[in-house]
Amino acid sequence: MEVGIVGLPNVGKSTLFNALTKAGAVAANYPFATIEPNVGAVAIPDPRLEVIRRHIASQKIVPATLRVVDIAGIVKGASEGAGLGNQFLSHIREVDAILHVVRCFQKAPGGEEITHVDGSVDPIRDADTIDMELILADMQTVESALPKAERAARSREPEALARLAVLQKMGPVLNAGKPARGVLGEIQDPEQRKALRGLGLITAKKVLYVMNVGDDDPLGEGPLCRVVRERAASEGAEVVPVCARLEEELGALDDADRDLMLKDMGLDEPALGKLARAAYRLLGLQSFYTAGPKEIRAWTIPIGAKAPQAAGVIHTDFERGFIRAEIYSVGDLERFGSEKAIRDAGKLRVEGKEYVMQDADVCHFLFNL
After folding, report:
1. How far is residue 364's CA from residue 343's CA, in Å, rounded to a whole number?
2. Is 62 helix (H, G, I), strand (E, B) or coil?
3. Mean pLDDT value across residues 76-92
4. For residues 241 and 104, is the Cβ–Cβ distance under 8 A?
5. pLDDT confidence of 118, banded at 50, 70, 90?
6. Is residue 184 within 8 Å of residue 204, measured between CB atoms?
7. Which value, to the nearest 10 degrees, does the dihedral of the CA atoms of residues 277, 283, 289, 294 take?
8. For residue 96, is pLDDT > 80?
9. Under a CB-based contact definition with an 8 Å cutoff, are residues 274 and 42 in contact?
Protein backbone atom coordinates (compact mmCIF):
# COMPACT_ATOMS: atom_id res chain seq x y z
CA MET A 1 0.00 0.00 0.00
CA GLU A 2 1.30 3.46 -0.83
CA VAL A 3 0.22 7.10 -0.69
CA GLY A 4 1.09 9.78 -3.22
CA ILE A 5 2.02 13.37 -2.30
CA VAL A 6 0.08 15.66 -4.65
CA GLY A 7 -0.17 19.44 -5.03
CA LEU A 8 0.78 22.47 -7.07
CA PRO A 9 4.47 23.21 -7.68
CA ASN A 10 6.32 24.89 -4.81
CA VAL A 11 3.80 24.09 -2.05
CA GLY A 12 6.38 21.96 -0.20
CA LYS A 13 5.74 18.44 -1.50
CA SER A 14 9.38 17.47 -1.96
CA THR A 15 10.40 19.08 1.34
CA LEU A 16 7.68 17.05 3.04
CA PHE A 17 8.81 13.89 1.27
CA ASN A 18 12.42 14.50 2.29
CA ALA A 19 11.37 15.06 5.89
CA LEU A 20 9.17 11.96 5.94
CA THR A 21 11.79 9.70 4.44
CA LYS A 22 14.87 11.63 5.64
CA ALA A 23 16.02 11.59 2.00
CA GLY A 24 18.16 14.68 2.56
CA ALA A 25 18.16 16.28 -0.87
CA VAL A 26 15.91 19.32 -1.26
CA ALA A 27 14.32 19.88 -4.66
CA ALA A 28 15.05 23.16 -6.44
CA ASN A 29 12.55 26.00 -6.03
CA TYR A 30 10.97 26.02 -9.47
CA PRO A 31 8.07 24.18 -11.11
CA PHE A 32 8.62 20.54 -12.06
CA ALA A 33 11.69 20.12 -9.87
CA THR A 34 10.43 16.56 -9.49
CA ILE A 35 10.06 14.80 -12.84
CA GLU A 36 10.06 11.10 -12.04
CA PRO A 37 8.34 10.26 -8.76
CA ASN A 38 10.58 9.58 -5.77
CA VAL A 39 9.55 6.61 -3.65
CA GLY A 40 10.46 6.13 -0.01
CA ALA A 41 9.49 4.11 3.05
CA VAL A 42 8.21 5.96 6.09
CA ALA A 43 8.34 4.43 9.56
CA ILE A 44 5.05 4.71 11.47
CA PRO A 45 5.80 6.17 14.93
CA ASP A 46 4.28 3.76 17.43
CA PRO A 47 4.78 4.23 21.19
CA ARG A 48 3.36 0.74 21.80
CA LEU A 49 6.62 -0.76 20.55
CA GLU A 50 8.48 0.81 23.48
CA VAL A 51 5.74 -0.39 25.84
CA ILE A 52 6.35 -3.95 24.67
CA ARG A 53 10.13 -3.59 25.03
CA ARG A 54 9.75 -2.44 28.64
CA HIS A 55 8.33 -5.87 29.43
CA ILE A 56 10.01 -8.11 26.85
CA ALA A 57 13.80 -7.82 26.41
CA SER A 58 14.73 -7.69 22.74
CA GLN A 59 17.70 -6.75 20.57
CA LYS A 60 15.81 -4.34 18.30
CA ILE A 61 12.51 -2.76 17.39
CA VAL A 62 11.15 -2.78 13.84
CA PRO A 63 8.25 -0.37 13.21
CA ALA A 64 5.61 -0.70 10.50
CA THR A 65 6.35 1.24 7.33
CA LEU A 66 4.35 2.96 4.62
CA ARG A 67 5.43 3.62 1.03
CA VAL A 68 5.23 7.27 0.02
CA VAL A 69 5.50 8.60 -3.55
CA ASP A 70 6.50 12.22 -4.28
CA ILE A 71 4.62 13.15 -7.45
CA ALA A 72 5.56 16.21 -9.49
CA GLY A 73 3.58 19.43 -9.16
CA ILE A 74 0.35 19.58 -11.12
CA VAL A 75 -0.64 22.83 -12.84
CA LYS A 76 -3.80 24.08 -14.50
CA GLY A 77 -4.14 22.25 -17.80
CA ALA A 78 -2.37 19.09 -16.59
CA SER A 79 -5.26 16.94 -17.81
CA GLU A 80 -4.52 18.27 -21.31
CA GLY A 81 -0.79 17.67 -21.00
CA ALA A 82 0.41 20.95 -19.49
CA GLY A 83 3.59 20.58 -17.48
CA LEU A 84 3.99 16.94 -18.52
CA GLY A 85 0.62 16.54 -16.83
CA ASN A 86 -0.43 13.24 -18.39
CA GLN A 87 2.77 11.60 -17.19
CA PHE A 88 2.26 12.92 -13.67
CA LEU A 89 -1.42 11.94 -13.59
CA SER A 90 -0.50 8.37 -14.49
CA HIS A 91 1.70 8.25 -11.39
CA ILE A 92 -1.27 9.27 -9.22
CA ARG A 93 -3.37 6.44 -10.64
CA GLU A 94 -0.91 3.92 -9.23
CA VAL A 95 -1.12 4.97 -5.56
CA ASP A 96 -3.77 3.82 -3.09
CA ALA A 97 -4.53 7.21 -1.48
CA ILE A 98 -3.56 10.86 -1.82
CA LEU A 99 -1.81 13.29 0.51
CA HIS A 100 -2.97 16.61 -0.91
CA VAL A 101 -0.47 19.29 0.15
CA VAL A 102 -1.72 22.87 0.24
CA ARG A 103 0.43 25.88 1.05
CA CYS A 104 -0.75 27.71 4.18
CA PHE A 105 2.18 30.10 4.72
CA GLN A 106 3.12 33.40 3.12
CA LYS A 107 6.88 33.15 3.69
CA ALA A 108 8.96 30.07 4.44
CA PRO A 109 10.64 29.67 7.86
CA GLY A 110 13.50 32.15 8.01
CA GLY A 111 11.63 34.64 5.82
CA GLU A 112 12.61 33.06 2.48
CA GLU A 113 10.43 34.09 -0.44
CA ILE A 114 9.08 31.09 -2.33
CA THR A 115 7.40 31.87 -5.61
CA HIS A 116 3.82 30.64 -5.96
CA VAL A 117 2.95 29.36 -9.40
CA ASP A 118 -0.21 31.56 -9.42
CA GLY A 119 1.46 34.59 -7.88
CA SER A 120 -0.39 34.58 -4.54
CA VAL A 121 -1.18 32.21 -1.65
CA ASP A 122 -4.75 30.86 -1.64
CA PRO A 123 -5.05 27.23 -0.43
CA ILE A 124 -8.69 26.81 -1.51
CA ARG A 125 -7.97 28.05 -5.04
CA ASP A 126 -4.97 25.71 -5.15
CA ALA A 127 -7.02 22.74 -3.95
CA ASP A 128 -9.73 23.55 -6.51
CA THR A 129 -7.11 23.60 -9.29
CA ILE A 130 -5.82 20.16 -8.33
CA ASP A 131 -9.31 18.72 -7.90
CA MET A 132 -10.49 20.00 -11.26
CA GLU A 133 -7.47 18.60 -13.11
CA LEU A 134 -8.02 15.20 -11.50
CA ILE A 135 -11.74 15.35 -12.30
CA LEU A 136 -11.00 16.26 -15.93
CA ALA A 137 -8.56 13.36 -16.17
CA ASP A 138 -11.23 11.00 -14.84
CA MET A 139 -13.77 12.41 -17.28
CA GLN A 140 -11.43 11.48 -20.11
CA THR A 141 -11.11 7.98 -18.68
CA VAL A 142 -14.88 7.53 -18.48
CA GLU A 143 -15.58 9.03 -21.90
CA SER A 144 -12.99 6.86 -23.63
CA ALA A 145 -14.14 3.68 -21.85
CA LEU A 146 -17.88 4.16 -22.34
CA PRO A 147 -18.27 3.16 -26.06
CA LYS A 148 -16.35 -0.08 -25.54
CA ALA A 149 -18.35 -0.83 -22.39
CA GLU A 150 -21.63 -0.29 -24.24
CA ARG A 151 -20.59 -2.79 -26.91
CA ALA A 152 -19.40 -5.33 -24.34
CA ALA A 153 -22.65 -5.04 -22.35
CA ARG A 154 -24.60 -6.50 -25.28
CA SER A 155 -23.25 -9.87 -24.15
CA ARG A 156 -25.31 -9.47 -20.93
CA GLU A 157 -22.39 -10.87 -18.95
CA PRO A 158 -22.49 -9.64 -15.33
CA GLU A 159 -18.99 -8.19 -15.45
CA ALA A 160 -19.69 -6.19 -18.60
CA LEU A 161 -23.03 -4.94 -17.28
CA ALA A 162 -21.39 -3.87 -14.00
CA ARG A 163 -18.68 -1.91 -15.81
CA LEU A 164 -21.25 -0.10 -17.96
CA ALA A 165 -23.40 0.71 -14.91
CA VAL A 166 -20.44 2.24 -13.08
CA LEU A 167 -19.40 4.32 -16.08
CA GLN A 168 -22.97 5.59 -16.52
CA LYS A 169 -23.11 6.51 -12.85
CA MET A 170 -19.74 8.24 -12.76
CA GLY A 171 -20.13 10.28 -15.95
CA PRO A 172 -22.75 12.75 -14.64
CA VAL A 173 -20.95 13.12 -11.30
CA LEU A 174 -17.65 14.05 -12.93
CA ASN A 175 -19.36 16.28 -15.51
CA ALA A 176 -20.86 18.21 -12.59
CA GLY A 177 -17.33 18.91 -11.37
CA LYS A 178 -17.52 16.54 -8.41
CA PRO A 179 -15.02 13.80 -7.46
CA ALA A 180 -15.97 10.16 -7.80
CA ARG A 181 -15.38 9.42 -4.09
CA GLY A 182 -18.48 11.47 -3.21
CA VAL A 183 -20.78 8.73 -4.53
CA LEU A 184 -18.78 5.61 -3.63
CA GLY A 185 -21.27 4.81 -0.87
CA GLU A 186 -24.00 4.42 -3.48
CA ILE A 187 -22.15 1.56 -5.18
CA GLN A 188 -22.76 -1.54 -3.07
CA ASP A 189 -23.01 -4.24 -5.73
CA PRO A 190 -19.81 -6.39 -5.52
CA GLU A 191 -19.44 -6.62 -9.30
CA GLN A 192 -19.80 -2.86 -9.68
CA ARG A 193 -17.27 -2.19 -6.91
CA LYS A 194 -14.85 -4.52 -8.68
CA ALA A 195 -15.47 -2.68 -11.96
CA LEU A 196 -14.88 0.66 -10.26
CA ARG A 197 -11.49 -0.47 -8.97
CA GLY A 198 -10.59 -1.60 -12.47
CA LEU A 199 -11.25 1.87 -13.88
CA GLY A 200 -8.51 3.41 -11.73
CA LEU A 201 -10.34 6.71 -11.24
CA ILE A 202 -8.07 9.16 -9.45
CA THR A 203 -10.88 11.02 -7.69
CA ALA A 204 -12.19 7.77 -6.21
CA LYS A 205 -9.10 7.62 -3.99
CA LYS A 206 -9.24 8.73 -0.36
CA VAL A 207 -7.63 12.09 0.40
CA LEU A 208 -5.82 13.50 3.43
CA TYR A 209 -5.18 17.27 3.35
CA VAL A 210 -1.70 18.28 4.52
CA MET A 211 -1.50 21.96 5.42
CA ASN A 212 2.11 23.08 4.94
CA VAL A 213 2.27 25.83 7.56
CA GLY A 214 4.87 28.40 8.60
CA ASP A 215 6.87 28.11 11.80
CA ASP A 216 4.73 30.92 13.22
CA ASP A 217 1.62 28.69 13.05
CA PRO A 218 2.80 25.11 13.74
CA LEU A 219 -0.63 23.98 14.97
CA GLY A 220 -2.39 25.25 11.86
CA GLU A 221 -4.75 27.68 13.58
CA GLY A 222 -4.33 30.72 11.28
CA PRO A 223 -6.87 31.99 8.73
CA LEU A 224 -5.35 30.09 5.79
CA CYS A 225 -5.64 26.85 7.75
CA ARG A 226 -9.17 27.53 8.99
CA VAL A 227 -10.58 27.55 5.45
CA VAL A 228 -8.77 24.29 4.65
CA ARG A 229 -10.16 22.68 7.81
CA GLU A 230 -13.66 23.79 6.79
CA ARG A 231 -13.20 22.33 3.34
CA ALA A 232 -11.91 19.02 4.70
CA ALA A 233 -14.81 18.80 7.17
CA SER A 234 -17.32 19.36 4.36
CA GLU A 235 -15.78 16.42 2.48
CA GLY A 236 -15.45 14.14 5.51
CA ALA A 237 -11.68 14.24 5.07
CA GLU A 238 -8.95 14.47 7.69
CA VAL A 239 -6.44 17.32 7.83
CA VAL A 240 -2.96 17.55 9.39
CA PRO A 241 -0.81 20.70 9.82
CA VAL A 242 2.89 20.22 9.05
CA CYS A 243 5.69 22.75 8.79
CA ALA A 244 7.71 20.73 6.28
CA ARG A 245 10.86 22.84 6.56
CA LEU A 246 10.76 22.66 10.37
CA GLU A 247 10.28 18.89 10.22
CA GLU A 248 13.38 18.62 8.03
CA GLU A 249 15.36 20.52 10.65
CA LEU A 250 14.00 18.36 13.48
CA GLY A 251 15.03 15.23 11.61
CA ALA A 252 18.67 16.38 11.63
CA LEU A 253 18.80 16.89 15.42
CA ASP A 254 19.67 14.43 18.17
CA ASP A 255 16.87 13.44 20.56
CA ALA A 256 17.68 15.99 23.27
CA ASP A 257 17.89 18.96 20.90
CA ARG A 258 14.80 17.81 19.04
CA ASP A 259 12.77 17.56 22.26
CA LEU A 260 13.95 21.03 23.32
CA MET A 261 12.99 22.52 19.97
CA LEU A 262 9.57 20.85 20.10
CA LYS A 263 8.98 22.23 23.59
CA ASP A 264 9.89 25.73 22.41
CA MET A 265 7.36 25.37 19.56
CA GLY A 266 4.63 24.10 21.90
CA LEU A 267 4.53 20.68 20.20
CA ASP A 268 4.39 17.27 21.92
CA GLU A 269 5.91 15.37 18.98
CA PRO A 270 7.04 15.99 15.40
CA ALA A 271 4.04 16.60 13.16
CA LEU A 272 5.27 13.87 10.84
CA GLY A 273 4.28 11.30 13.45
CA LYS A 274 0.68 12.50 13.34
CA LEU A 275 0.81 12.62 9.54
CA ALA A 276 2.18 9.07 9.19
CA ARG A 277 -0.48 7.67 11.53
CA ALA A 278 -3.22 9.61 9.72
CA ALA A 279 -2.03 8.20 6.37
CA TYR A 280 -2.02 4.71 7.90
CA ARG A 281 -5.66 5.17 8.97
CA LEU A 282 -6.54 6.64 5.59
CA LEU A 283 -5.53 3.36 3.96
CA GLY A 284 -7.57 1.34 6.46
CA LEU A 285 -4.52 -0.26 8.03
CA GLN A 286 -3.71 -1.41 11.55
CA SER A 287 -0.77 -3.06 13.32
CA PHE A 288 -0.22 -6.27 15.20
CA TYR A 289 3.01 -7.29 16.89
CA THR A 290 5.36 -10.19 17.34
CA ALA A 291 7.83 -10.04 20.20
CA GLY A 292 10.87 -12.10 21.10
CA PRO A 293 14.51 -11.82 22.14
CA LYS A 294 15.72 -10.98 18.62
CA GLU A 295 13.16 -8.34 17.68
CA ILE A 296 9.86 -6.69 18.44
CA ARG A 297 8.15 -5.98 15.14
CA ALA A 298 4.99 -4.19 14.02
CA TRP A 299 3.23 -5.82 11.07
CA THR A 300 0.72 -4.12 8.80
CA ILE A 301 -2.68 -5.62 7.94
CA PRO A 302 -5.99 -4.24 6.65
CA ILE A 303 -8.60 -3.55 9.29
CA GLY A 304 -10.86 -6.61 9.36
CA ALA A 305 -8.13 -9.11 8.44
CA LYS A 306 -8.43 -12.56 10.00
CA ALA A 307 -5.71 -14.43 11.87
CA PRO A 308 -4.48 -16.61 8.94
CA GLN A 309 -4.16 -13.50 6.75
CA ALA A 310 -2.11 -11.81 9.46
CA ALA A 311 0.12 -14.87 9.75
CA GLY A 312 0.61 -14.76 5.97
CA VAL A 313 2.06 -11.24 6.22
CA ILE A 314 4.96 -12.76 8.16
CA HIS A 315 5.38 -15.69 5.76
CA THR A 316 3.05 -17.26 3.22
CA ASP A 317 3.75 -20.70 4.73
CA PHE A 318 2.28 -19.47 8.02
CA GLU A 319 -1.04 -18.77 6.31
CA ARG A 320 -1.14 -22.06 4.41
CA GLY A 321 -0.35 -24.12 7.49
CA PHE A 322 -2.20 -21.99 10.05
CA ILE A 323 -3.45 -23.93 13.09
CA ARG A 324 -4.17 -21.31 15.72
CA ALA A 325 -2.85 -18.10 17.26
CA GLU A 326 -2.02 -17.25 20.86
CA ILE A 327 -2.92 -13.60 21.37
CA TYR A 328 -2.90 -10.93 24.03
CA SER A 329 -3.08 -7.13 23.82
CA VAL A 330 -0.43 -4.52 24.54
CA GLY A 331 -2.78 -3.35 27.29
CA ASP A 332 -2.66 -6.83 28.86
CA LEU A 333 1.13 -6.68 28.81
CA GLU A 334 1.10 -3.31 30.56
CA ARG A 335 -1.34 -4.61 33.18
CA PHE A 336 0.31 -7.93 33.99
CA GLY A 337 3.95 -7.16 33.17
CA SER A 338 4.99 -10.32 31.30
CA GLU A 339 3.71 -13.00 28.94
CA LYS A 340 3.99 -15.57 31.76
CA ALA A 341 1.82 -13.45 34.04
CA ILE A 342 -0.73 -13.03 31.25
CA ARG A 343 -0.83 -16.79 30.75
CA ASP A 344 -1.08 -17.47 34.50
CA ALA A 345 -3.98 -15.01 34.76
CA GLY A 346 -5.84 -16.87 32.00
CA LYS A 347 -5.75 -13.83 29.70
CA LEU A 348 -3.79 -15.47 26.86
CA ARG A 349 -6.40 -16.11 24.18
CA VAL A 350 -6.27 -19.03 21.74
CA GLU A 351 -7.91 -17.98 18.46
CA GLY A 352 -8.71 -19.91 15.30
CA LYS A 353 -9.08 -19.20 11.60
CA GLU A 354 -12.16 -16.98 11.93
CA TYR A 355 -10.66 -14.59 14.48
CA VAL A 356 -10.73 -10.98 13.28
CA MET A 357 -7.47 -9.29 14.24
CA GLN A 358 -7.61 -6.26 16.54
CA ASP A 359 -5.27 -3.29 16.55
CA ALA A 360 -2.44 -3.81 19.10
CA ASP A 361 -2.73 -7.61 19.22
CA VAL A 362 0.52 -9.37 20.18
CA CYS A 363 0.64 -12.78 18.52
CA HIS A 364 2.33 -16.17 18.48
CA PHE A 365 1.22 -18.19 15.43
CA LEU A 366 1.20 -21.98 15.41
CA PHE A 367 1.34 -23.61 12.00
CA ASN A 368 2.08 -26.89 10.30
CA LEU A 369 3.92 -27.09 6.96
Report:
1. 13
2. strand
3. 59
4. yes
5. low
6. yes
7. -80
8. yes
9. no
